[in-house]
Amino acid sequence: MLDSDTCHRARLSRDPRFDGQFFTAVRTTGIYCRPVCPATPPHERNVAYFSSAVEAAHAGYRPCLRCRPDSAPGSPAWKGVDTTLERALQLIDEGALQNASLGRLSERLGISDRYLRQLFQKRFGVSPKTYALYQQCLFAKQLLHQTNLPVTDVVYASGFQSIRRFNDCFKTQIGLNPSQLRRQSKPDGNELTLQLAYRPPYAWQTLQGFLAKRLIDGLEWIGDDYYGRSFTWRKAKGHFTATHDPHRHRFLVALEIDDLTAMKSVVYNIRRMLDLDADTRRIEAHLAQAIPGLPLIEGLRLPGIWSQFEAGIRAILGQQVSIVAARRLVQTLVDQLGEPLDDLSSAQRRRFPEPARIAASDLAFLKMPGTRRETLQRLAQWHLDHEDTRDANQWLALKGIGQWTVDYARMRGASHPDIWLGGDLGVKKALGELGSADPAAASPWRSYLTFQLWNR
After folding, report:
1. I need a surface site. Which of 47, 72, 114, 257 has the fewest CB within 10 A?
2. Residue 80 has pLDDT above 80, yes or no
3. Is the model's pTM score more than 0.85?
4. What is the CATH code of the structural domain delimited by 4-62?
C-alpha cells in the first residue's frame, strides 16, 4: 500500500499513473473512487485509502458511479505479495471458483484450503469465495455500464448460475439493483465493446511494431491504432479487436464470443496480452537503478500471446531460424490446420490449431527437420494429456524442448514478469554493449529488461 501522503497528492492531481493502485473511500458518502475520479475531491479528514476494491467494499463502501472502479487497471502482480496468492488471484480471475470448489483450487495450488483462506484473510480481510464473488459483481457492473447486453446475458457472462442469485449478490455487494444501474447508464455502439484502462505511459508504437513483424494473417490483424485476433478459450470461440485510445489511457475492445460464461476470463486474458496492468513507471525506475546506462523505452509492455501452448509452438517453430522464417512456418501451420471462423463475414480468418489437430497430423507440410516436427507433436500430445496443468517447466521432460523454449512460452504465453532470455543472441549483444551489467539485479522484472534490450 502506498503511503497516505502519496495517495493524497495522487488523488488531488488525478494522476492516471496511480489508477488502480489504491482507492479512496469517502466516509461522508459511503462511496469509494479511483484516483482519477472527476468528482470534487473530498477533504482529507473524510477519506480512507484502500489498496484494493474488495477491501473498500468489505469496509462497507460502494463503488462510485462516475469513475466506475470496475474499470480501473488491476493492481500489478509484482508488489511483493506471496507468490501462491498471486497464482490464486490469477486463477480466480480466470473463473476457477465459478465452476469448481475451493478445495479443487487449493489442490491446483498445492496447498490446503485452510491455508488459502488464511492468505486471503491476511491480504484482503475476506475469504476467497467473497473475493471471487465481488470480482464477478464488478465485472457485471462493467457490462451493465458499457454494453447493451440483456441483464440475463450479463448474469451468465459474469459467472452466476441464476438471475435470483445474481440480483441478491449484486444488491448486497454493489448497493444497487442491476435494473437501477442499467437505467442510469446509457451504453451505445456495439453491445460488446468494453473499455479496458491502463496506467500511462504506454509504448503502443513499439508494441505494435513488435506484433506486426510476427503477425499471422487470418489469425491476427493489426493497424496503426488497433490489434485483433481470433481465439479459442476452453470450449468458447471468438475474436476481438482492441483499438488504442491514448487520450483516455484505454483500449476499446470489440469482442465476439459464442459462450458468454467464458467472457470474464477471456477479457482477463486480453488484459494480460496487452499488459494493461503493469506499473511501467515503477518497473523502469527499478531497471534504471539495476542496469546503469540502459536507455529505456518509456511505457514498454510485454507483448503477450494468447496461450502458453501457442507460445510454445511458436517458439519451437522459431528455433534456429530468422523471425521471417519462423513467421512463415507459423503461417503455414495455421493455414493448414487452423479452424476457420464460423462468422461468414470472416471467411479468411482462422483460429490457432488445437493440440488435437497438431498431435494427429504428420506435419509433412512444414519444411523443417523431422525431429522438430516430432517435438511439435509431443508438445501437443502433452497438452492433451495434461489439460489442467499450466507449469511449462514440465515440458523440459519432452525431447527437443530446452530451457529457452520454456522461458519464451512463460514470458509471452503467461506474461511472467521475471524471465531472462540471456541465451538469445540479440540480448547478449545488447547487454554486452552496456559493460559489466548484471541482469540478476533487474529481478523481479527481467522480462521487461529482455524486451528493452530486444528493442535497442
Report:
1. 114
2. no
3. yes
4. 3.40.10.10
